[in-house]
Amino acid sequence: MPMRPVHFLFLVLINLVFALAIITVKFGFEEIPPILFTTLRFLLLAVILIPFLDVHRGQMRSILVIALGAGGLQFALFYGGIYVTGNVSAVVIASELGVPFSTLLGMVFLQEDVGWRRWAGMLLAFAGVMYITFDPNAFTYLTGMLFGVMAAASGSVASVFMRLVKNIKPFEMQAWIVMISWPPLLLLSLTVEQDIPTILANVTWVGWGAVLFAALVSNLFAHAGMFFLLQRYEVSFIAPLTLMAPIFTIILSVAFLGDVFTFRMFIGAVVTTLGVLIITLRRPAEAVRVEEVTH
């Protein structure tokens, strides 16, 4: 069925929120280091989502892997990449490799069929990222890109286990992700980030606003809105449109953060996004659905 104009505008808003969340995180990092920021975000969500916790016997081991892979580890790596580099765009482009990584893991561990079109899409996605790394300016943000790739790999491992669990609602999964993730994140923050009490005592409304936006607006509003749309339209129609999020992120990071976006980065981003689009259009509906409601 064709999408109603109001629902299309809602989807655009959701993608814009995902992009804005990354931009606000960058401002938050001016006052709060990345692991502590992630901890605070997840701790706030854990308090809100406690009512949704429900034990699923026989599936808790998979839920644990999902929580670590798609939660604490993925976010810590992604935010760490943004923190160590001055270029958000490079990290966002690198993190798009999560889709080809998931496809490869699905082929190896779930015996999913990968046709020539998805192979072509994977090659394009990897080629786009590799093309960027040969940019003479890439050495200034290569570490951030590496963190982005590792974050994509972490989320991809979780996606394999997401396809194995059954009858778990989106907010239930989010509740387990944040509840399992924040304790080890807090321990890691206390270990590697210095003088946490002093940092918290000096956080202004800008830092707390970034945490609130990331947790409440991005996680709760945007993810719930995506689930609302996925209940009404085919995944094959919705999923490609979510590629607006990284495009919005790049535009906003250049406009508001002063990111350097070279012509080589533009070509690499186009090639990577095209590859991801091809894979998304050719992936099984259930594989895309489970990732769209939990990423």
Structure in words:
The protein has 295 residues and is mostly helical. It has one domain (5-292). The protein is 77% helix and 0% strand. It has helices at 5-28, 34-49, 60-84, 88-95, 98-109, 116-133, 142-162, 170-192, 196-201, 205-230, 235-241, 244-257, 263-282, 285-292. Helix 2 (34-49) runs antiparallel to helix 3 (60-84) and helix 4 (88-95) packs antiparallel against helix 12. The chain starts with a helix and ends with a helix. Mean pLDDT is 87; it is low at 288-295.
Q: In total, how many domains does the architecture comprise?
A: 1
Shape, per Cα inertia axes: globular
Structural class: mainly alpha
Number of helices: 14
User: What string gives the helices and strands in order?
Assistant: HHHHHHHHHHHHHH
State Rg.
18 Å
Secondary structure tally: strands: 0
| Uncertain residue segments | 288-295
Mean pLDDT: 87
Helix percentage range: over 70%
Largest β sheet strand count, sense and barrel closure: none
List keywords for this structure.
disordered C terminus; 295 residues; mainly alpha; globular; 0% strand; 77% helix
